[in-house]
Amino acid sequence: MTNPQGCRLEIEVGERTLVRLSGELDAPDTRSARKLLTAYIRAGTTIVVDLAGVTRVDPSGLAALVDLHELARQQDSRLVVVTGEGGGPAHRALEAAGLTGTVDVRQVLMDG
User: Fold this and answer.
1) Are the CB atoms for 7 and 26 separated by under 8 Å?
2) pTM for this one?
3) Residue from 85, 75, 90 nearest 39 by CA
4) Which of 58, 64, 76, 85 is most buried as measured by Cβ atoms within 10 A of its Cβ?
5) Long-range Cβ pairs for the range 1-8 (8 Å, 24+)
6) pLDDT (tens digit per residue) in 26-39
7) Start and end of every STAS domain (predicted)?
8) What's the CA gap between 45 and 78, in Å, rounded?
9) Phi/psi zone of residue 23: left (φ > 0), alpha (ψ -120 to 50 degrees), beta?
């Protein structure tokens, strides 16, 4: 799925659901991604959100990650956010907002 501004979303479903986002994550993209991820979380799936390819995360994207993290916790599911090695834009945005201690944030995708 791609919006006119170029945010791309790819999904791989298996033992866990891997959602890769790339481009700019802004309000319209956040609404679409939140709706999709909510359905997977409610199904009890572990969700890995790969933001390594994201070039910008606006405040709506950060708020969605917090909300989804809380929903996953309530549903006995799990949400993991991968930001990519080297502290890219997504990692810096999460760090600046003080969310690296709230949301399960990792720089690299690992099994488990």
Assistant:
1) yes
2) 0.88
3) 75
4) 64
5) 1/32, 3/28, 3/29, 3/32, 5/29, 8/53
6) 888 888 888 889 99
7) 18-112
8) 7
9) left
